[in-house]
Amino acid sequence: MAKKPLSPLKKLRMLQNLTQKELADILGVTQDTVANWERGRAIPRLTIPQFKTLLVVLKVAPEELPDDFSPPRTYSEDTSIMQSEDN
Fold first, then answer.
1. In terms of C-beta density within 10 A (0-12 exposed, 13-18 middle, 19 or more buried), how is residue 43 classed?
2. 26 near 46, Cβ under 8 Å?
3. Nearest 10 degrees: CA dihedral of 79, 38, 43, 45?
4. How confident is the model at residue 66, as a pLDDT?
5. Angle at 33 between CA 58 and CA 68, to 5 degrees
6. 3-state secondary structure the chain
7. Do residues 70 and 6 touch, judged by C-beta distance below 8 A?
8. Which among 42, 38, 43 is positioned nearest to 8, based on CA atoms?
9. Which domains does the chain have, with CATH numbers?
10. pLDDT of residue 72
11. pTM of the prediction?
């Protein structure tokens, strides 16, 4: 079975050797919130201080952050979405 692609946020978090819980604690959100961002189930809604903290913790510039934190969709996910839209 093929591995699912990692979300950009998860890649950045793992580069800093942080767990979801550690990142959540630093940002003042729950671990479930971080997990939902990484799975594409929720869009991050950060305050400016939280955003600045995220940049510092992940060691990235604002332009280096991806527009979408969720994992890239696979071909099968795209075709199933297109099929459901056709019905």
1. exposed
2. no
3. -170
4. 81
5. 60
6. CCCCCCCHHHHHHHHCCCCHHHHHHHHCCCHHHHHHHHHCCCCCCCCHHHHHHHHHHHCCCHHHCCCCCCCCCCHHHHHHHHHHHHC
7. no
8. 38
9. 1-65 (1.10.260.40)
10. 79
11. 0.77
| Paired tokens of 53 | 């903290």
The residue written with tokens 């799975």 in the block is 39
The pLDDT tens digits for 15-45 are: 999 999 999 999 999 999 999 999 989 999 9
* Angle made by CA atoms 26, 14, 48, in degrees to the nearest 5: 35
**Token pair 């692609």 in the structure block, residue:** 5
Q: What amino acid occupies position 67?
A: D
